[in-house]
Design brief:
The protein has a single domain (about 10-215), classed as q2cbj1_9rhob like domain (Jelly Rolls), CATH 2.60.120.620. The protein is built from six helices and eleven strands. It has helices at about 10-20, 30-40, 45-50, 65-70, 70-80, 110; strands at about 20-25, 55, 85-95, 120-125, 135-140, 150, 170, 180, 190, 195-200, 210-215. The strands form three sheets. Strands 1-9-4-11-3-2 form a six-stranded antiparallel β-sheet.
């Protein structure tokens, strides 16, 4: 895949996003900022539990995560990706302890239920993420598909993963080839709301920590969700 940088060539980065459904932007957060976010996440109840399920909406629990959602670099990019002013919508911190299985194939908009071009996600790596650590797999060009059918799976729940990670899986249309999405520490993987992606099992002995930040064009309708309780967040 082509490598571009929004900081150096915003037009090329947006074009790649429009063609492939994603792009990776390095240096969104500094090394020190990542380390501070990890330290803050270790003060959240889900870390203290010892089972390390994802922490939902940490921006409501600690200002450091709200400030992360308001990251000026992310907000500027999101404004270009969704063509307008944006609001934060959801934050999730993933601990990804060794042995944690990945998400099945999915599109983010199957739960958000908004206009396809009004919503996008920024998946930020808190350390260099490689395939053996539970890295992401994406399908370039798949964002042009509508919200696709899903089928039930027989995969059991796992204490260290979102309970919705396995119960259903999106049916992959023919013609798409997977790519491994290697994301370095502090970089963000920007994904279109219909971009098909999944993640691998963490087969390493390292935690695979990441922070998911999602955004919507301000004022658009969306599904709040019974558990997530999504609500627009002012990021300016």
């Amino acid at each position: 895949m082509e490598t571009v940088s929004f900081a150096n060539d915003a037009e090329a980065a947006v074009k790649l996003y429009q063609e492939a459904g994603f792009f990776i932007e390095e240096n969104i957060f500094s090394i020190d900022e990542c380390d501070s976010l990890v330290k803050a996440a270790e003060n959240l109840p889900d870390f203290a539990s010892g089972t390390f399920p994802p922490s939902m909406q940490p921006h409501r629990a600690d200002p450091i995560f709200l400030n992360a959602m308001r990251n000026a670099k992310i907000v500027k990019i999101m404004e270009q990706l969704v063509s307008g002013q944006v609001s934060g919508l959801q934050s999730t911190f993933y601990y990804g302890k060794p042995g944690t299985p990945g998400f099945t194939l999915h599109q983010d908009n199957w739960v958000i239920e908004t206009k396809p071009d009004a919503f996008a996600s920024a998946w930020v790596a808190m350390q260099d993420v490689t395939p053996d650590m539970g890295g992401l797999i994406g399908y370039p060009g798949s964002h042009r598909e509508p919200v696709l059918p899903r089928v039930n799976t027989e995969i059991p729940d796992h204490e260290s993963q979102d309970r919705n990670a396995f119960r259903e899986e999106t049916v992959l249309p023919p013609g798409y080839e997977p790519v491994s999405l290697v994301v370095p520490k502090g970089a963000a993987l920007f994904m279109h709301s219909h971009f098909l992606h999944s993640s691998l099992t963490n087969e390493s002995q390292k935690f695979r920590r990441s922070l998911l930040l999602t955004y919507i064009r301000t004022g658009e309708k969306f599904r709040a969700g019974n558990t997530a309780g999504r609500a627009e967040v002012n990021v300016y």
